[in-house]
Amino acid sequence: MTKILIAYFSRSGHTREFAKLIQQHSGGDLLEVRPVRPYPQDYRETTEQAKREQETHARPQIIAEVNHMASYEVVFLGYPNWWGTMPMALFTWLEQYDLSGKTLIPFCTHEGSRFGHSLADIKSKCPKATILDGLALHASLPKELALRNIAQWLGGLRIKA
């Protein structure tokens, strides 16, 4: 049996919904990474804050703790693509744990930019992890179609708790 963690950040709920679908198919444990100080409700304000955080390499404080990270072999990492990469809160999370030897599987929601440079960013933060092919899902994808895409993707990965 493979011990699976599905860690994700979601502001609008799209990534959360896809993380739950992955959990249903993989049997993994779900962990939402949340900033201590929530992002603004207004989308434009959120994107402006996200851009400032990237420009300053900010590491927002987060609420998300894994008590037994060593027990997980596979970590799905979910996020919306903001300005070409992950929200800075996920950089904070990745830097809190030694993911050496683990299998990381990214998935992101986007509005057309797919993964941007987030995969390279994950590789630079986790150089001793194995990073498998991820799944980029358009945020407005209907749930039924997203479920089919996720099931096909997971079937190809052959990972199950």
Helix content estimate: 25-40%
Radius of gyration: 15 Å
Quantity of strands, as a count: 8
Stretches with pLDDT under 50, minimum 5 residues: none
Write down the CATH topology: Rossmann fold
**Shape, please?**
globular
Compute the number of structural domains: 1
Determine the N-to-C terminus distance: 6 Å
In short:
By secondary structure, the protein is an alpha/beta fold.
3D structure, described in words:
The chain is an alpha/beta fold and 161 residues long. The chain has a single domain (4-157), classed as Flavodoxin domain (Rossmann fold, 3-Layer(aba) Sandwich), CATH 3.40.50. It is 36% helix and 21% strand. It has 5 helices and 8 strands; from the N terminus they run βαββαββαβαββα. The protein has helices at 14-26, 43-55, 88-96, 118-125, 143-157, and strands spanning 4-8, 29-32, 34-35, 62-63, 74-80, 103-110, 130-131, 135-138. Strands 1, 2, 5, 6, 7 and 8 form a 6-stranded parallel beta sheet that branches. Strands 3-4 form a two-stranded antiparallel sheet. α3 (88-96) links the parallel β5 and β6 (103-110). α1 packs across α5 (143-157). The longest helix is centred in the C-terminal third of the chain and has 15 residues, at 143-157. It is globular and about 40 Å long. The termini are close together.
Show the helix and strand layout.
Layout: E1 4-8, H1 14-26, E2 29-32, E3 34-35, H2 43-55, E4 62-63, E5 74-80, H3 88-96, E6 103-110, H4 118-125, E7 130-131, E8 135-138, H5 143-157
Parallel strand pairs: 1-2, 1-5, 5-6, 6-7, 6-8
Antiparallel strand pairs: 3-4
